[in-house]
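User: ok so my PI wants both of these folded by tonight, can you help

Assistant: No problem, let's get them done. Here's the first:
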Amino acid sequence: LHDILKLSQLPKLTKLTLHGNPVAEHKDYKMWVGSHLPNLRNLDFSTITKIDRDNINVWLKRHAQSVKR
């Protein structure tokens, strides 16, 4: 998953397909990707909606709190 961080250097990246990639086997990969690529509008052939962004933000806050503990 940490290889996704390299993609954050591509601000014009709006579509990404990880379907079939080993990273897609990780339980929370969509949340991880969405939280680190805020300009992404489409992931694995699906549009990232406002509700998805809200869920990503909630997940990120929870994840950050659990890391601090």
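One down. Here's the second:
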Amino acid sequence: MWSVFESGGFVMLPLLLCSLLSLYCAIERVIFWSNIKWHNDNTKESIIPHYLNSSSSFINFLTDDKTYPLFSILIKAIKYDKCSDESFHLALSSALQSEMPVLKKHTNIFSTIITISPLLGLLGTVLGLIDSFSFINLGQAGVNNIKVTGGISEALVSTAAGLIVAITSLMFSNYFKIEFQRELPIIQEFLVQFEIARTEKNKRI
């Protein structure tokens, strides 16, 4: 394995760093979205009843897990619970917008890795071919086959490595984009339901 890594030339080091960074981001996002799915299945439906039944302890309930977007949004907006419906709606909208970077976290990192990895592979290809051609002397019968094939091997390995890193990162990135696109309507629908429940609660007071 190490011999294959060495044969790819110096571009294999930045490609390795890109792959490790992509793996770290992917693991963090998998944990993040798994946690959201768990809360959606087990906690989401109890948020509004908890708010209606016990407003005083509602903040403590929300601080149970601040990584859950709905909890985080409501923590920021509930400060305006005593305000008008319009003000509370604006507070919810603002809190939702502030949560967007968390939901889209690592998107730019994935985009950068997807773009730069094939370019690094291409750079390794060019350098490997240049290295190979430098051992070919036109007009001479003898050619250093080992050095020539070594340069070609460097070109092929670096290209393959760059494509593997880019393709893998692209798959992760698209998966997390799908999760975001699936979750956003769920959050928006719940916030509407929460506003309605709050309005009905205030009417009874």
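Helices lie at 2-7, 12-42, 44-53, 58-62, 69-77, 85-103, 107-133, 145-204. The CA atoms of residues 137 and 150 lie 16 Å apart. Good luck tonight!
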